Amino acid sequence: MTVKYWTKEQVKLGFNLYCQLPFGKLDQRTPEIIELAKLIGRSPGAVAMKLSNIASLDPAITSTGRVGLIGASKLDREVWDEFHADWDRLALECLHIHEQLRAEKGIAQSDAIEDAEPEDVDDFTGETRRVVTEQRIRQNFFRRAVLSSYRGRCCMSGLSDSRLLIASHIVPWSKDKENRLNPRNGLCLSALHDKAFDRGLITLDDEFRVMLSRDLEKRNEAFVQQFFHPLAGQAITLPERFVPDKGFLERHRDVVFVDHKMTVPGFGIVVNNGFRHELLSCLMKVMRKV
User: Fold this and answer.
1) Nearest partner of 112 among 62, 39, 209, 47, judged by Cα
2) Are 230 and 49 in contact (CB under 8 A)?
3) Which of 8, 56, 75, 129 is the 20 to 30 A CA-CA neighbour of 236?
4) What Rg do the C-alpha atoms of the chain give, in angstroms?
């Protein structure tokens, strides 16, 4: 019997899907696995097996005693490393591979593209429309990867209504191009907690415990007391994979968290603690020379 080896493009599509499915759905009956199997000409069982092979490379899975299927190939490892080195490029590349295969087989455009198309198409030129569409595709990949890792629940409140959940960036989208699609730069938060995290009113320490800003701690409104005060010092529910990178959390504490910002006396300059002493030293030197 002739062995039908996986191509690199097929493995990329497999890894792309692996990132967007909960570990418990790496099963041949999962609709997304069935769809990919039809697209690449393999059985759903073969695709599910490949995703389980990929899971065996994931330290977040193996560290909990789950091992996936032993037998990940050299190509599987190569694709794993490529994705972790450049999430942004690989996510888009997989979409293009996906759409090319659909075109070759005469299959209708995927929902991912249709959902990403700007609704007010008349207001976009061809190039602008492409840029907007690709950005939304990137955001959709990040959202699915983060929400599936957290089992579709806010890691602080436990809320499970997807309409109210946000794939929140730890380091803002605009501040780190290399990691804007890295699922380890994400948290699954309710819209309320996402806004508070984005505005620096809450953050996490290196033990993944919630830290409240002094402003929130002092507020005595019933709403704040109900939805924020109980979180102080509580550990979030960790994802089954793509555990938040502690380096990203440190950057959030230093750059975004309001209690780690200060105004330099007499200058009205807002800086974070990481630059406090250096900036003050430079200002003092300048003042001595004046």
Assistant:
1) 39
2) no
3) 56
4) 22
Tell me: the pLDDT tens digits for 118-163? Answer: 455 455 566 677 777 788 888 899 999 999 999 999 999 999 999 9
Spatial distance between the Cα atoms of 169 and 262, rounded to a whole number of angstroms: 23
Stated pTM of the model: 0.80
Adjacent-strand bridge partners of 251? none
Retrieve residue 244's tokens: 């938040």
In 10 A of CB 147, how many CB atoms?
22
Look up residue 2 and give its amino acid.
Answer: T
**272: three-class secondary structure by DSSP:** strand
**pLDDT 10s digits, 202-230:** 999 999 999 999 999 999 999 999 999 99
d(CA 34, CA 42): 9
224 near 216, Cβ under 8 Å? Answer: yes
